[in-house]
Amino acid sequence: RYNNQCISTCPNNYYLEETSKTCYSSCSALYTIEKEKLCVYDCTKSPYLYYSNNKCVSSCPSNYYLYEANNTCYSQCPDTLFKIENGKKCIEQCPSSYPYIYNNQCVSICPSNSYLYETTRTCYDSCFALYTLNNKCVDDCPSSFPYYYNKQCVSSCPQGYYLYRPTKTCYQSCNLLYTIEDTRECVDDCIAPYDKYYNNQCV
């Protein structure tokens, strides 16, 4: 049907809605299959997928990601999903070939200058409240790198710093504590063999 007329095919640039057999200049609230000039109620007709602007397409456009669970193309994957560049897909869990997560993307290795937190297999630009060790974020420093320096795990304090053993922390100065220059340590009190006090130092 077209303008109350019975016709064999819809005019050029018109779309057929097959259920009512009506020709429309646009599909309005329905989905458009441009290739077949059809208006449809959903994109379940094989091989079509949902795409933005209420269009049905046979494959997602370049730079779009397919979420197979609902056959929908996204310019950005929803926050609850991860994207994978190889295959341009949105997925619920990263595969073993791309096991790590960086900015909601599944990657095979963490990018340079980022840090892997193995507990969640996530790559971070900084370790925030965690500690840094060999390009990884760790909850605590291991015995092989037992000391804390600027949120990093180190085997010894950097040159010019002092170690405060009770907290295993490296400080640039001992502030209200006492200094043992020979061992580059901050201490609460002077004990043998450094049991003499001199200018906030143990000698």
Description of the molecule:
By secondary structure, the chain is mainly β. Helices cover 0% and strands 34% of the residues. The protein contains no helices and 24 strands. Strands 2-1-4-3-6-5 form a 6-stranded mixed β-sheet, with no helix packed on it. It has a two-stranded antiparallel ribbon with strand order 7-8. A two-stranded antiparallel sheet has the order 9-10.
Oligomeric state of the chains present here:
single chain
Give the overall pLDDT as a whole number.
92
**End-to-end distance, in Å?**
103 Å
| Largest sheet entry | 6 strands, mixed
* Fraction in beta strands: 25-35%
Number of strands: 24
- Secondary-structure content class: mainly beta
The amount of helix comes to under 10%
Strand arrangement, major sheet: 2-1-4-3-6-5
Low-confidence stretches: none
Label the overall shape. rod-shaped
Radius of gyration: 32 Å
The number of distinct helices, counting runs of at least 4 residues, comes to 0
**What is the N-to-C succession of helices and strands?**
EEEEEEEEEEEEEEEEEEEEEEEE
